[in-house]
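Q&A log
Question type: sequence-to-structure
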Amino acid sequence: MPSSSSSSSSSVYAHVAALLHESRQQAPDQLAPFLARRVERFGMRELSVYVTDFEQRRLVPIDGSASMHPIDLDGSTGGRAFTTATQVGEPTDDGGTRLWSVVVDGAARLGVISVTLSEADDDALALADSLAGVVAALLVTRGQCTDAYTTVRRSEKFSLAAEMQWDLLPPLSLDSGRVSVAGLIQPAYEVGGDSFDYAVNGDTLDFAVFDAMGHGLVSSQLAHLAVSSYRHSRRSGLDLVAIYEAMDNAVASRNLGEEFVTCILGRLDLMSGRLDWVNAGHPLPLLVQGHEVVGRLSCSPTLPAGLGHLTGASVSEIAHHVLQHGDRLFCITDGVVDSHRPGGDDFGEERLIELLRERSRAGLDAAETVRQLSHTVLDHRGMLSDDTTAFLVDFH
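Response status: OK
Response body:
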């Protein structure tokens, strides 16, 4: 005869399967009421779903009801669940537990769910975690068919340039057994020419950070072209030299003067830790070892993409470095260190290095490190005059 635990597991799987099946018949913008009606079959009640806003400062309810309010990521129970990627509980007046679980789509943290449990035993915690995974899948798949969940994440109106840039980005973070990456662009609602991209294929992580000249829509169009060219070349199996040359030709093909895009192009072997990379007129990445910032990696600069064709120049150097277990590689655009208030000091490299050291010593993961650093830079400036991008690679 099957054991009670196996019977219980079968029942859980059946409930999950039924939930996914039933979701196909629901309007894509009605996930919140749909989930709330069915959560009792999991032995829970009072389900709420929150997604993070684009600046990653608040958690916003997706149901839009007047009784639900956004909550701050910093200083709240739900925020602690999100920033630490753990389950966090708080007692209820009736002796139960209000449990917060992070919603992760397999790559990026999307938000949190909260449910009330009569008894927060191991089985209930595991079930709530599974339910959060189902919610993540539904937010991603159903969210492609509605604007509802993108709209609630906005605390301000997007510029057209920012709309284009956010649609271009990959998931903001990825955690895997061998590598973690995370990135964030600011100011979220006005960003124009900054971007980043990455992909894990087999034993290789490819990544790139971009900064297109200018501001606004023209800058966003340039960045779009550069990222699209990069992805096309990467997916075609080209090496770093050919990727740069294709991007250089693509930007130059616009024939709109001396337009250019600076970038870092990196390729990391996830077995050996060998990093090959190209610096196309971009700030050099910082290396963190043992929670200490040991300095910038060096690489002879190549002309920014779009300018190489003017002199017939190609890649000046493919630099190499072997990352060790626990090393962090931190890439930025120049808006990070140049950020300042009118009449004030630049944010500067020294302040950046100290913050990166502090966050690394605190044991923060890649996503939370980037989130905190980006907010510190934005708060130093108030309103940024230039885009800023922070992109972090943790080699495990």
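Response note: The radius of gyration is 23 Å.
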